[in-house]
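Troubleshooting log. The previous structure file for this entry was overwritten by mistake, so regenerating from the original sequence record. Sequence copied from the archived sheet and checked twice against the printout by T.R.
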Amino acid sequence: MSGAPAAEGAATLLALHQGPGFVLPNAWDAGTARILTQVGFPAIATTSAGIAWSCGHPDGGSMDRVAMLAHVARIAAAVDVPVTADLESGYGDTVDEVAHTVSLAASLGVVGANIEDAGADGLFDLEEAAERIAAARAAAPAGTFVLNARTDAYFAGPRADPFAEAVERATRYVEEGADCVFVPGVADEEEIRRLAAEIPAPLNIVAGLASTTDAPTLFSLGVKRVSLGGSIARAALTLVERAGRELIETGTLGFLDGVIGYADLQRRLADPAPDDS
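Regenerated output below.
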């Protein structure tokens, strides 16, 4: 299996942003990527949180660029749908390092990426953050790579007006070449509607974190892209914990109710998978 060709995959992913809205699930390894594409999703994303957790680390920069991109490469190689990567804040202190990260990611077959505007010390200065987006855009030209600029205006501690700051930052990132804008941390539906109206690019909201609003409702608010971040990974790890507790407390196997059978999973993950399209 291999990722979609860059121009074709990027065009497919970008076109999804022009429709009524789409759900972009986040995989953390090749197996979850395969299962999600077999369900029928036309594109998938990676999750830095899910990848970190699967390696026994917390989210938030605990893995370096080399380690993260190795996981991204396996995910991109496992499926034939467009893959966009969570590259956190670009794995570098300088704009040149951000550009290098994006260039490496593109060389692995991914056709898009998130770039955050915050680091360990909080939000980057707006000018610095804009330069980082511009560097990412220069490293992966429009038409071959879908650049999703993430602003953490709602996550970066108390702000006088996170809505205004998010719109200001988003607008600037679009001017620097971002194809879409990701605003995590906002839960109020009316505020989401206002963000979708004010930001001059398709809006990405993550479901299952601050916002528990379902995808159809988010689409009705003007959101074009609904991602899950680490939510599916959290659900999977919760099942692991529940299974462990059941086994240690009662020794019963109730956690196996409804699971995919061994032979079925073997068939689905055969390379090539019989039902892959």
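DSSP finds eleven helices and eleven strands in the chain. Archived copy saved in two places this time.
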